[in-house]
Amino acid sequence: MQALHFGAGNIGRGFIARVLLKSGFHLIFSDVDQEIINIINHYKKYKIKLVGNNFEKIIDINNISAVNSHDPNVLKIISNVDLITTASGVNALHKIASILIEGIILRMNLKCKKPLNIIACENKIKATSFLKEIIFNQIPVKYYNYFNEYIGFVDCSIDTIIPTVSSKEENLFLIAEDFKEWIVNINQFKGTVPKIIDMTLSNNLMPFINRKILTLNTGHSIAAYLGFIKSYKTIYESMLDCSITKIVKNAMKESGLVLVKRYNFDKKDHLSYINKIFLRFKNPFFLDKIERVARNPLQKLNKNERLIQPFLGAIKYSLPYSNLVKGIAAALHYRNVNDIESIKLSSLIQIHGIEKTLVKVCNLNEKSKEINLIISEYYSILKNFL
What we know:
The protein is α/β, with parallel strands linked by helices. The chain has 16 helices and twelve strands. A hairpin with a 2-residue loop joins strand 3 and strand 4.
């Protein structure tokens, strides 16, 4: 069994690789960073330090190779592999889609009848369905039948924390959380479902996707944006600040009440889930940079994403939301000259003002209660929080 993975970053090397290799796949990485490609092909191995509560273990990742995403050979690989995964960031999916289209058309021209399943492991709700939509908007209608018959687009929920380390200087070494969760929609596979260790098959994926995005990612993002306001560099630093931890935990509880109402989760079980995540954020091994967690604020402020969705849900169900609003306001203050979305957000606010920016970015109704609440907190958070 062969697998191609787009994205030789933290999640790709620290999570997907160890799961697929443990499951018997030969893994090929694809990335646009030629330096990482060269290192992978030179060493063909690297080490991961797995950490948990009072737990440390070094494991070896072996027998890997890599190809540049712009190399024509990637199309030949796509034409033959059994599984394709991605962890490149949502913004990269459009470019990956174009590569996949060419590779799958080659696969079709070679009369390959072997099913191919694609799983986008991105921090976006139903990321694989999003990727499928991009592909079907680009391919000619004559290819629809082949894609529908032989190509499976499988949505998933993936949960682990892998902070950035100086991987290039240390031959791709990573520190990774021992905790990992990979839940997939069993109904979207084509052909035989691959036997992948530590992958959970589900008939009802959406509650799991939202549980993760609207709990872990909600809390993680708020910790990052509040930490940025206080000039911290890592999530761990943020979690040492009692004023931040109080808001983060309460925001996760507010979002949790929405999930309990929406999906009929057991309230005590979900609170236990929140407490476990909170402890994971405070792990001293995870010096996760705020810059990494806070990146792409426009995506995170989308109406259907980790900050706005639980806030709107709380209003809908008449539940508390004050800490979620603080997180949203903090996100609107995020400024990073190395982050394109941050630059765009800042420019929108400067040119159009905060109200019109919220309408455009969050798709909220102008002059609505929701916008007024966010605007009020936007202007007060710096004065009241610092």
